[in-house]
Structures are given as C-alpha cells and as structure tokens.
Design a protein that fits this description.
This protein has 19 helices and 15 strands. By secondary structure, the protein is α/β, with parallel strands linked by helices. The chain has a domain at 6-13 and 68-110 and 234-446: Rossmann fold. Helix 6 (140-151) links the parallel strand 6 and strand 7 (155-161). It starts with 5 loop residues before the first strand and ends in a 10-residue tail after the last helix. The mean pLDDT is 94.
Length: 456
C-alpha cells in the first residue's frame, strides 16, 4: 500500500464520459410532473429554460454520456483533482481507519461546482443562449457559473440568498470578478421576490426563493436560460467525474472503500462522489456503506417527507418526488448556506428511500469543531458545508477506534473555506448558535405541500 499523501492522475486519465445511474436503478425514477395537469413533464415543457442537450441528458437511459472535448479542455485547469490520504487526521484520532478525501477545493472557484457549470455553459452556448440566470446559497455555485460563463462569452445573473450575501461578501466579489451580476434574494426585480417581501420585508431568503426568482428571470427573457447547480439529474451526471476519478485513484493504491461520505444540500457533490460507488453495490454486489450528511436545522433526508413537491418557493417548477420539508420552509441562517434547501435530488432521495444510502444530521458547533481539527491536522480550511462530511468521517473513524476495524473511509472534500473565515471567527469566539430541527416551522411548511399527487 502506498505511503504517499496524495494520489494523482495525469490529464490523459480523466474520464471520457459521465456516468448516468438512471438505467442501473432497480426500479425507474419517478418523473417530474406538470403541477397544472399532474402529467409527466415533456421536453417541450422545459424548452423555455433549458437547451435541448441538457433536457435529453435529464431523461437519458444511456449509462455513459461522452464529455465534449471543449468541456474537457477547461476541466484540465484543475482536473484530475488529487485524492489525499488524511494521515495526520488519522494519527490525531488514534484510529486504525484509513481516511481519504477527494479534494475538489482546488478548482478556480474553490469547489466541485465548476464540474457542471462548465458543461451547462457549453451546452447553452451551443444553443445560442446569451445569458444564464441562476440562484446560489453560499456563493459557490454562483461563482462557478460566473467563472464558466466567461469562457463561453455568456452573461450571468445570480440571485444570492440574502443571508449568505451578507455573510459572505468575498464570494459576491468573486462573482463580480468573473463579470457576473449578483443580487441579494428576495429582490424587487421579480414578481416572486416582491411577493415574498410583501409578506415578510425582513426575509433573509432561501434557496427555494432564489430559484423562483432565477426561473422567472429566465422564463421572461427570450435570450436567457436557467442553470441549476444541484438537484437535477444532469447536474449529478456531470459531477460523477468526482467518483470516477476517485475509483481510479483508489485502484492505484490497492484500496476498496468500506464507507463513502459527503455533505448533502441539493445533492450534487455527494451524488457525484457516491453514484459510481452505488453502481458497484447494485451491479457488482459490493457492500459499500454510503452516508449523506446534512444540517439538523434543515434535515431534508432525515426528517422530510417523501412526496411530490415544488423545487422552488413560488411553485414555478415542476413537481419532483423527493424528500422535502415543504417548499415554503425558510431554514435558519446557518453558515453552511449551500445546505439550506428544502428538498433534495430525486435520484438521491430514491436511493435513500430504497435503502441504498443512509442519512445523518448534525448541528453547527460539532461540525465546526470537526472542521477546526481537520484544519489543524491536514492544513486545509474546509467550507462549512464540507465540514459536515468531515464530522461524519470523524465519527466513523472513532467507531473504528472502538471496534479495532481497519476500514477505508472516503469522502468528498467539496470546497475550501477561505471565504468563510467569519464563520470560523464566530465559532472560535463562542458566537455560533446551534439550530436544532425547527419542528413547528417545518410542520407549517408541510401544510403547504401540493394536495396532489399524493406521492408515496
């Protein structure tokens, strides 16, 4: 077994195709539904906001979809990303477990998000689109799409959740640096935003609200399409470069994972890491434990109901069968802004519902405690979102310390925390609040679920 700290691949070893799990699912994924008719959404329903090639990827039954050469050339700016052995963390924990992390924080925007941002910008440029509108929570997706749009000469408009806009000014600056325009959501620019502000002038926003604004922007401008950074099938498809590279790197050092972990907000980084390993379980009879980690203040997978719901607050999107806390739910303003979404990727929700994936939730302070330990041992400052995965990894490694099991634990280091230092200051100075499951808020939001279809 290698003694290296980093396992690297050459550019020629990058995947040539993204992995599509849809044809490998034991039972089909439930289709998105038109909320007016209750019928499955057709490609024509999506044409006003998505290019044809992304719509086809959303429903494709091909297990492998070729990565365009133009996309691969831009990927080479940071891909393949390194797989690190967390030897110093292992030593600090005194665990017999072997811990590896796939470092997606080395991309120019600092996270996994450009893996799909570049692909989406490419397909929209091919379709003749001039501008992309999107939402962002902590700002990682907004900065990634702004970055990608510059390569394809597209304009980019970002609706950033207001609480994150105020907490994370440097991510806003990063978007501006790549020529994106950024607005704190809810805004007065859209009907959806104005409606929210009329009901609650002090609204700090949510991803659901920001999605409503971005979708409305795209739907009301002929030259503009919508780009989503998570949840949808084609987004998880593009992110599978993470897991596919990880599999090659583990093979190089003779490792097979016992446990794969990632943080979950909408599901893109976790899906990108996990889905190739889910395939191993389904197709090859492996028994890899796969765990998604979320915040207790927005416990979609652990406390949500599995039912059709809107992907946005205003009810403009198709209905998706997913674990949901209710599309009107506004979670507390935790620092992990990318994990504050009421729903989750339908693919991951189905895998959780069917028992292929487990879910776990934590509050902020234990998560930041884990992040500080990681930073002080491995030297890299993790984003608050990523820190949820690290907390899960540490717990699994400590279980191995108790049992003596020499497990191989692999996780997705989804992004660095260089623009999240205010959050670390809050933690170190004892100002960080632990938001538990806001039961009454979620109960009220669940009352607003669509009355049909009933889902599961």
């Amino acid at each position: 077994m290698s003694e290296d700290y980093k396992i690297t691949l050459s550019e020629k070893d990058m995947p040539d195709a993204w992995y599509n799990i849809l044809p490998d699912l034991p039972t089909p994924l439930a289709p998105p539904l038109n909320p007016q008719t209750g019928s499955p959404v057709t490609p024509d329903d999506l044409k006003p906001i998505f290019p044809d090639e992304l719509i086809m990827q959303e429903v494709s039954q091909e297990p492998w979809i070729e990565i365009p050469s133009e996309v691969k050339e831009i990927y080479k700016l940071w891909r393949p990303t390194p797989l690190h052995r967390a030897r110093n963390l292992e030593k600090a924990l005194g665990t017999p477990a072997r811990i590896y992390y796939k470092n997606e924080g080395v991309s120019p925007p600092g996270s996994h998000k450009p893996n799909t941002a570049v692909a989406q910008a490419y397909y929209n440029k091919k379709a003749g689109v001039k501008r992309l509108a999107t939402e962002t929570g902590a700002g990682q997706w907004g900065s990634a799409l702004s970055f990608a749009c510059k390569f394809f000469d597209l304009k980019c408009t970002v609706y950033m959740v207001k609480v994150s806009y105020e907490q994370k000014p440097y991510r806003r600056i990063l978007m501006h640096l790549w020529d994106g325009e950024v607005f704190p959501s809810p805004t007065n620019r859209t009907n959806a935003g104005r409606k929210i502000l009329e009901a609650n002038p002090d609204s700090k926003g949510s991803l659901g609200i920001a999605i409503s604004e971005a979708v409305e922007d795209a739907a009301t401008h002929e030259d503009t399409n919508y780009a989503l950074g998570s949840v949808l099938n084609h987004v998880l498809l593009h992110q599978t470069v993470i897991g596919l590279e990880t599999q090659k790197q583990l093979e190089l050092v003779g490792e097979e994972p016992d446990c794969v972990i990632g943080c979950v907000g909408g599901g893109s980084n976790f899906g990108g890491m996990a889905l190739p390993f889910v395939r191993d379980n389904i197709k090859n009879g492996k028994e890899i434990e796969i765990i998604g980690i979320e915040p207790k203040s927005c416990p979609t997978l652990t406390k949500g109901v599995y039912q059709y719901d809107f992907g946005d607050t205003a009810g403009m999107t198709p209905l998706l069968l997913m674990h949901t806390l209710g599309h009107t739910f506004e979670p507390p303003g935790i620092h992990a802004g990318g994990l504050r979404y009421h729903g989750d990727a339908p693919i991951l929700c189905k895998l959780v519902h069917d028992g292929f994936i487990k879910a776990r939730a934590y509050t902020q302070n234990p998560v930041f405690e884990a992040a500080v330990l990681f930073a002080r041992t491995e030297g890299i400052i993790p984003a608050p979102e990523t820190s949820h995965a690290i907390k899960g990894v540490i717990d699994e490694a400590l279980k191995c310390k108790e049992t003596g099991e020499e497990k191989c634990i692999v996780f997705c280091f989804s992004g660095h925390g260089h623009f999240d230092l205010a959050a670390y200051d809050d933690y170190l100075e004892g100002r960080l609040k632990d938001y538990e499951y806001p039961e009454e808020m979620i109960k009220a939001a669940l009352n607003d679920l669509p009355k049909f279809p009933t889902g599961i």
